[in-house]
Amino acid sequence: MVWLVMGGTLLGTVLSGAILGSALGLTGFVILHFFSDGATSLGVQAVWNTFNKFTLTAIPLFILLGELLVKSRLARDVYQALSPVFARLPGGLLHTNIAVCGLFGAVSGSSMAVAAAVGAVSYPELKARGYSRPAVVGSLAGGGTLGLMFPPSLSLLIYGAFTETSIGKLFVAGIIPGVLAALMFMVWIVVMSLRTPSVAPASKEKVGFYPTLKGLLNIWPLLALIGAVLGSLFAGLATPTESAGIGVAAAILIGYVFGELNLKGIIEALFSTVVTFSVISMVFLGAVVLAQSISVLGLPQQLLSQVNGLGISPLGLIMIVVLLYVAMGAIFDGLSMMIMTLPIVFPLLTGLGYDAIWLGVLITILIEIGMLTPPVGMNIFVLVGVAKGEVKLGEAAVAALPYWLILLALIGLIIAMPRIVTFLPDIITF
Amino acid sequence: MQADRKMDPSSKGWGAVADRIDRAIFLISRMFAFLGVVSVAGMAALISLAVVMRYALGSPFAFTEELSALMLVSCVFLTLPYVIVINQHIRVELAVESFGRTARRIAFAIGQLVFVAFALVFFVNAWEDVKFTAMLGLRTEVARITLLPFVSCMAAGVALSGLIALWQIFRPLPVQTTSYEMPEGGH
Amino acid sequence: GTAFSETVNWRFNNNFPPTRPESAYIRDLAKNVAKFSNGDFKIDVIEGGGMNLKDADALRWMQTGTPEIAFVNVAFVARDAPAIAQLLIFGSVSNLDEYWRVIPEIKSALIDGFDKFNISVVGFIGLPFVEQSFFCRQPVKTLADLKGKKVRVGNLAQIKVFEALGVSAQTIPQEELYTALQTGVVDCALYPAKYAKFISLQEVTKYAVYTGFPYNPVPYVVMANKAKLARLSPENRAALDKAIAVLQEDSFKFEGGAEAEVAARKDLTETAGVTWFDDFSQEDVEAIREASNQVWGQLAEAAGPDALATHKMILGLLKGNE
Ligand code: NA
Ligand code: NA
């Protein structure tokens, strides 16, 4: 019954072309009102708690970092320098999206923050160079998923605390699947660019080896920024969230001294940041109300308990869990999905002999799949926000589909060969 | 959409009043957004200063964590009205794109009403929070920061957004603007 | 049940992971309620925070009737009700003797406090006595060794207690604690040995020392929505009360706590190489207690005259029988 109400309200509100966040949120309020005795206040409480969170400040700060790099014109120089390096590789600068997302993934524990940070710099620059906008957005939405696979990772931290599993081992376990995902993303970029060369225009000017090398010196501002962020983290000066603040301070300093950043540029960057963040927040806000309305009903836990009683084989059960997560991932943001299901999924699957570390990585990849699944795909929203609506939600979702499929293939791979995940944590002791 | 706009001032008095209201909405929402900008700037400054303080004195300000989180939540709601005015929010327009003019107009009105209804429910609950916070004089747990201004930002931002969305029903179909200029009525 | 009785379904919100002993108590409670009511009264337990309701908001969501019943650690409701959250603070109580002396007064203060929010207290769950230790990156054996270190604690009272002792204390979100200790953003964390493995503390800190004080042992409150509770039939209400009585009987047994602490420390040493130093000296323990009592008084004063009166009463009980 509640699924019918949800489906109907969502369809009606979304089809009218309403602001997506309000359609999701109103659906949530309707469910809270009719199925939880009018407890709509729980939706507002959940929204307040979602945004009143220190670790979330990393998202606007990383967006601001990117905007400052663009406004100071240093981003232009960086991509100018990188362009000849990637000239021969089909897909060109699209590959830098994956690589830089991987680097930022080592700083940030959230995939939205990674997609936002890299997107804010890369989208305007690649657009200006004639790259296909959906292709850029797709690669960034995909690249962002590396944020949860490379340590630190918010989902693995919560999983570890919840299940009493070694966080160190979980972090290490995510690395090989993360690298595999990155490589597969790059292979897809090559395939896509060979099939449709127009998505990534070939660099026009032929640049020789030494000029290329000399030009590469221009990427130092980017390296310095990454150094400031990574450095403050690994030197023990800042927590992952604080390192985003350090990055902003460094971007202002470098942009002012070596770039063309001035007060006007800073204010413009700030304005652009709050607008982008507000676009993302509006959808997030609606999604939070909707997720709250479902989670208070305890439905996912009930559903899983029923599945548990059916006497299915271990492999069959893992398939069902994967399917369920992929389906739920369409509507729920990953972390609330994990918290809703873990109390049943964890004892169920580890009881059947599945490895706890392996399961943590599996669930993290499933969460990332959810980040790319519409209608509530947070990574897609982040990029639509960063692109200031120049790429429509539908286009972005289609562009992200190959990355979605790659992650699904990765799930198949680690089910078939669990050693991919368990190999590293097994040889490392803490 | 442009034609739609030009037809509007046919009744001159109403057109002039409506334009004036548009302008007022634009200015007010932009002022709110500016406060949002101040919040983000303050947040960035606070967090980087806290790192310096911890390095220099061994402990950061006790209020960094709570205050920056509150600035974040305020920023979200302070910017909301402006982003509605410049029509940047994500909509699913797959169905609407195939509609004719009248159908489109109707769908737009329905869509706006969805937002208005959402904002209304949200505001009613947020307003309860405002009263509860004021009545008990609530503060944050660690730094004892007064919560009322921040909870009020949430209520005010949502209320203004709902009113703007309601007003837009009676105005020409909005055009998405990527600049930060006034999207319509700004000459 | 009779032919006319309707089955009542309640949701129990449990924010603890299913592996915690508290969660086992709640599952037992649900089973007993069903048993004692002959199946007329069913409680669905939603564990692990699956309902996504935060402890800090407990006094708000409980009033909506969603969920119908829940339990909460009152230390987390400090924003909405500082008076309830500070009935004891870190450093107030160091052993079970002191604990049993103050517990009746604390229970009645909790019942009154929740009533002000229009919420019914239906019972209590004994919060196990868990000793709080410092887990550090470098050897720390005394209070003096802590000076100059960056210390992560859990709440305002703890920050103030350690600041009063000249130690710079701060809060860091739980999600960032592991990384912060790994990289050295903070040097030490105040945490119970029994729960250290939940957040893999043993991987990032190799030295530990017991402070002489347990985690704030104010009992968990089992609370129910007033309207929903009033709507229960007398039979169902009796079944609930009977099941709660069983829960209280089970959960307030603290025997075996000391052995469990020893086992937890031994496990951390043997499986992860954590070095345990001798417990804080008697002088250090007394210094903490003195600082704590001072801070406790200030906090109670800030929370209002009722809170101050309750504080004085509890402090008197603690000091009275020495
Ligand atoms: Na990461
Ligand atoms: Na999704």
What is the strand content of chain B?
A: under 5%
Pairing-aware structural class of the strands and helices of chain B? mainly alpha
Number of strands of chain A: 0
Report the principal-axis shape of chain B.
Answer: elongated
Strand and helix order of chain A: HHHHHHHHHHHHHHHHHHHHHH
Please give the alpha-carbon distance between the first and last residues of chain A.
49 Å
- CA distance, first residue to last residue of chain B: 16 Å
Low-confidence stretches of chain B: 1-10
Order of helices and strands of chain B: HHHHH
Supply the number of helical segments of chain A: 22
| Mean pLDDT over the full residue set of chain A | 89
Oligomer: heterotrimer
β-strand percent of chain A reads under 5%
Domain unit count of chain B? 1
Helix count of chain B equals: 5
Largest interface: A-B, 63 and 63 residues
Overall outline of chain A: globular
Largest sheet geometry of chain A:
none
In this entry the ligands are: sodium ion
Please explain how this structure is put together.
The complex is a heterotrimer of chains A (430), B (187) and C (322). Chain A is built from 22 helices and no strands. Chain A has 430 residues and is mostly helical. Chain A has one domain (20-427). In chain A, helix 11 (167-195) packs across helix 19 and helix 15 (263-295) runs antiparallel to helix 20. By secondary structure, chain B is mainly α. Chain B has one domain (2-169). The two termini of chain B are 16 Å apart. Chain B has helices spanning 2-7, 12-57, 64-85, 101-136, 148-169. Chain B contains five helices and no strands. In chain C, 46% of the residues lie in helices and 17% in strands. Chain C has helices at residues 21-36, 58-61, 82-85, 96-116, 143-146, 156-164, 174-183, 201-204, 226-230, 234-251, 257-272, 282-303, 305-320; strands at residues 8-13, 41-46, 69-72, 119-125, 131-136, 150-152, 168-170, 188-192, 207-214, 220-225, 275-276. In chain C, strand 6 (150-152), helix 6 and strand 7 form a beta-alpha-beta unit. At the A-B interface, helix 1, helix 2, helix 3, helix 4 and helix 14 of A face helix 2, helix 3, helix 4 and helix 5 of B. One sodium ion (NA) binds next to loops of chain A.
Helices and strands in order, then pairings?
The complex is a heterotrimer of chains A (430), B (187) and C (322).
Chain A: H1 2-15, H2 20-35, H3 41-51, H4 58-71, H5 74-85, H6 94-105, H7 111-128, H8 133-144, H9 146-149, H10 154-163, H11 167-195, H12 209-215, H13 220-234, H14 240-258, H15 263-295, H16 299-308, H17 314-328, H18 334-351, H19 356-371, H20 378-386, H21 393-416, H22 419-427
Helix pairs in contact in A: 1-2, 2-15, 3-15, 4-7, 4-14, 4-15, 6-7, 6-8, 6-11, 7-8, 7-20, 8-20, 8-21, 10-18, 10-19, 11-19, 11-21, 11-22, 13-14, 15-20, 16-18, 17-19, 18-19, 19-21, 20-21
Chain B: H1 2-7, H2 12-57, H3 64-85, H4 101-136, H5 148-169
Helix pairs in contact in B: 2-3, 3-5, 4-5
Chain C: E1 8-13, H1 21-36, E2 41-46, H2 58-61, E3 69-72, H3 82-85, H4 96-116, E4 119-125, E5 131-136, H5 143-146, E6 150-152, H6 156-164, E7 168-170, H7 174-183, E8 188-192, H8 201-204, E9 207-214, E10 220-225, H9 226-230, H10 234-251, H11 257-272, E11 275-276, H12 282-303, H13 305-320
Parallel strand pairs in C: 1-2, 1-3, 6-7, 6-8, 9-11
Antiparallel strand pairs in C: 3-10, 4-10, 5-8, 5-9
Helix pairs in contact in C: 1-10, 4-13, 6-12, 12-13
One sodium ion binds next to loops of chain A.
